[in-house]
Amino acid sequence: MAPEIPHDQPSIESPLSGERLDFLASSVADSIESDQRIRHFATSYLPSRREVIGVLERLSWLLFPGFNGPREIDTTELNKHTRNILAGIAGPLFHQIAGALRYAESNQPITFDEHCPDCDVQAREIVDSFLESIPALREALSLDVQAAYDGDPAAKHTDETIFCYPGIRALWMHRVAHALYIRAVPLIPRIIAEHAHELTGIDIHPGATIGDSFFIDHGTGVVIGETTVIGNNCKVYQGVTLGARSFERDESGELKRNWKRHPTLGDKVTVYAGATILGGDTTIGDTCVIAGGVFLVRSVDAGHTVRGPKAAVRLNENREDFS
Question: Same structural domain for residues 123 and 243?
Answer without folding.
Answer: no
